[in-house]
């Protein structure tokens, strides 16, 4: 972790995101990135990545019909042009669930690696953790979830957070932590080929806002999610 | 008494319909042990016969589960209740409502009707006493207006049964 030296030059605004919204973190920016690049090699890589995800879930014993609709929704969402706002919200929930499946599958596939991190959070087994804290909609995204998703999708992410420990002199530092997928060579040698995360999130207690670069400014946008899972009187 | 009728709610979305047809086919090929789906032409409401597992307090007893699917199944949990008379169990109210986390907060689209059935049978099988929840009368009275169990704010605190 390091100070974001040029934070002052970024005008940052953000609006509060709902709990469910913590998850569609790759949606907008990832798609924009792909559409801009229109790179056949990248499209092929996405297809291979989806196939990998399908095999992981099958190997773990998930019935195909429980996840195939979410893979389809994800592909449709990426390949079709932007639908109306209402449809975006409905589709975004399906995409969020797709990412929950990806995360759950990856954690269970590499359970030996993730076990120590999960034991720090709960006494549950890796599998129980996935059933209770990854797969249900509305469950929060912790460090483990982001690391996993970044790895599984091969997408680097930057999370900005405010450090209030230096508040006494009236300033708030903006720090950041980069999540770099493990299979990217530059993540390990940290040198020659610097990874530039194109997804930036702002962490505020309990949720993340998606920050977008727009005309040289970093902006937070709000998406309204249709069905959050709260059953209150 | 069997909860709100599905006809009073929205019909199934395309994804829900598609998913339920696949679940039904899977059920016919590979039904969970101890359960029988009662065939109807209503995809949005399933009625399932439950047989208590041998060697448990509910052996040789038969109950009926009613499963109602919302428009956005499986993103939203189905409503699952016992059609009274409901089994005597510390987590099952006399109006058929079931206190089980996966039916509410902990539901995920990775679950299926079949996996719900297995969880319910497991909940019955691990019971050591046939009795109603302590707050049964108060809860059932509050539900008289036909309130769905999904509108209840459940508090899950007992992981033994």
Give the oligomeric state: heterodimer
Query: Number of helical runs of chain B?
Result: 3
Tell the overall outline of chain B: globular
What's the story with the biggest beta sheet of chain A? Answer: 7 strands, mixed
Strand order of the largest sheet of chain B: 1-2-3-4
Helix content of chain A: 40-55%
Largest interface summary = A-B, 25 and 25 residues
Radius of gyration of chain B over all CA atoms, rounded: 15 Å
Mean pLDDT of chain A: 71
The share of residues in extended strands of chain B comes to 5-15%
Alpha-beta classification of chain B: alpha+beta
Number of strands of chain A: 7
InterPro entries (chain B): Ub_conjugating_enzyme, UBC, UBQ-conjugating_AS, UBQ-conjugating_enzyme/RWD
Enzyme class (chain B): transferase
Domain UBC core (chain B): 15-161
Keywords (chain B): ATP-binding, Nucleotide-binding, Transferase, Ubl conjugation pathway
Describe this structure in words.
The complex is a heterodimer of chains A (233) and B (161). Chain A is of the alpha/beta class. In chain A, 45% of the residues lie in helices and 15% in strands. Chain A has eight helices and seven strands; from the N terminus they run ββαααααααββαβββ. Chain A has helices at residues 27-37, 40-59, 64-79, 85-109, 111-119, 126-134, 143-153, 185-189, and strands spanning 2-3, 12-13, 157-163, 173-179, 199-204, 207-214, 217-220. In chain A, strands 1-4-3-5-6-7-2 form a seven-stranded mixed sheet. In chain A, a hairpin with a 2-residue loop joins strand 6 (207-214) and strand 7. In chain A, helix 3 (64-79) crosses helix 4, helix 4 (85-109) runs antiparallel to helix 6 and helix 4 (85-109) crosses helix 7 (143-153). Chain A is globular. Chain A starts with a strand and ends in a 13-residue tail after the last strand. Mean pLDDT of chain A is 71; it is low at 1-28, 185-192 and 222-233. Chain B has 161 residues and is α+β, with helices and mostly antiparallel strands. Chain B is 22% helix and 14% strand. Chain B has three helices and four strands; from the N terminus they run αββββαα. A four-stranded antiparallel sheet of chain B has the order 1-2-3-4, with helices on one face. Chain B is globular, with a radius of gyration of 15 Å. The two termini of chain B are 26 Å apart. The chains are: A alpha/beta (233), B alpha+beta (161). Chain A binds chain B through residues 62-63, 65-67, 69-70, 73, 93-94, 97, 100-101, 104, 131-132, 135-138, 227, 229, 231-233, and chain B through 15, 18-19, 22-23, 26, 72, 74-77, 104-112, 150-154. Chain A: It comes from Cinchona calisaya. Chain A: InterPro entries: Papain-like_cys_pep_sf (IPR038765), Peptidase_C65_otubain (IPR019400), Peptidase_C65_otubain_sub1 (IPR042468). Chain A: This is Ubiquitinyl hydrolase 1. Chain B: It comes from Cinchona calisaya. Chain B: Its EC number is 2.3.2.23. Chain B: It is an enzyme of class 2 (transferase).
